[in-house]
């Protein structure tokens, strides 16, 4: 499994604004997750003994991601969603995921992005850090 090339943010925005749902969107918000050098254990659990990350093996469950997207569309004020996930052997700085949410007002879009990315990260992906 080899990593994918990340799509163009500019192209995604052109497509989003051309979508019929764009008329109901007052805000679009991106999440671009990348592989960081600092281990999860160090960031989340303040584990000072964690070694620096050199890369990660990344995979995901497409059906789970689709379910997460469907659930996010049911949130208040959400009218547009697009998700891309990488896969394979990634190195520090590589893109892991790209999520775009469009909706009516800022609080709805921020909440939806937070919930969708959280659902994907917590339930749909496998990230194995390498040291």
Model description:
The protein contains four helices and six strands; from the N terminus they run αβαβαβββαβ. With 131 residues, it is of the alpha+beta class. Strands 1-5-3 form a three-stranded antiparallel beta sheet, with helices on both faces. The protein has a three-stranded antiparallel beta sheet with strand order 4-2-6.
Please provide a brief summary of the model.
The chain contains four helices and six strands. It is 35% helix and 31% strand.
Structural class assignment: alpha+beta
Radius of gyration: 16 Å
Shape from CA axes? Answer: elongated
In which order are the strands of the major sheet placed?
1-5-3
Keyphrases for this structure?
31% strand, 131 residues, 3-stranded antiparallel beta sheet, elongated, alpha+beta
Please describe the topology of this protein.
Blueprint: H1 9-18, E1 27-34, H2 40-45, E2 55-60, H3 62-73, E3 78-85, E4 88-91, E5 95-103, H4 106-123, E6 125-130
Antiparallel strand pairs: 1-5, 2-4, 2-6, 3-5
Helix pairs in contact: 3-4
